[in-house]
Design goal:
Length: 180
């Protein structure tokens, strides 16, 4: 079982985050919803989410993947958290890093996308510093996976699940949720 830390901040896009978390959990991954602020987070659409833990309560040494949802001002709040930025910047090549919507901009500003192909929500392309932009819904290049936005959240979840727990597991979940 792989361990994924899904980060959330006030203003994060609720459905992008929870869809990916749900898909991963259905496939057997251990997912820890981790707030960079307090345990209760208010998403970009005013929905309250209670995180499993906070950033300061974790050491992340057991992480197989780190996931950032988009949304505004959630993406800005994630980018402003120095501890999270240090964790992402220092992640080993064996740790998968994923981001959706506006959140790939965080990876771009940290220099994690240099020489990689990536995608993001339209309008954030310039913030994918050093990356080759692709307009497709989900892109995996090395240990980095990016997605365009909410409409691709299920696809991102399935992609991550396949990379972490195997393609057969991802196909089983895909079938079970009736995803085309």
């Amino acid at each position: 079982m792989k361990k994924v830390y899904a980060f959330i901040a006030d203003g994060s896009e609720e459905v992008e985050c929870l869809t990916v978390v749900d898909i991963l959990k259905r496939g057997g991954a251990e997912v820890v919803l981790t707030s960079v602020g307090g345990k209760t987070v208010v998403g970009s659409h005013g929905i309250k989410i209670i995180a499993d833990t906070t950033f300061d309560e974790c050491d992340f040494s057991d992480a197989n993947a780190l996931f950032l949802p988009g949304g505004m001002p959630g993406t800005k709040n994630l980018a402003a958290h120095k501890g999270l930025c240090n964790l992402l910047s220092g992640a080993k090549a064996s740790v998968r890093v994923a981001a959706i919507c506006a959140a790939p901009s965080v990876l771009g500003r940290l220099g994690l996308l240099r020489g990689k192909t990536a995608t993001c929500f339209p309008g954030f392309e310039e913030e994918l510093i050093g990356a080759k932009y692709s307009p497709v819904g989900v892109v995996t290049d090395g240990n980095i996976t990016t997605a365009r936005g909410l409409g691709f959240a299920v696809d991102l979840g399935l992609e991550l699940l396949g990379l972490l727990e195997g393609k057969a597991t991802a196909e089983k979940v895909k079938s079970a949720i009736q995803h085309p």
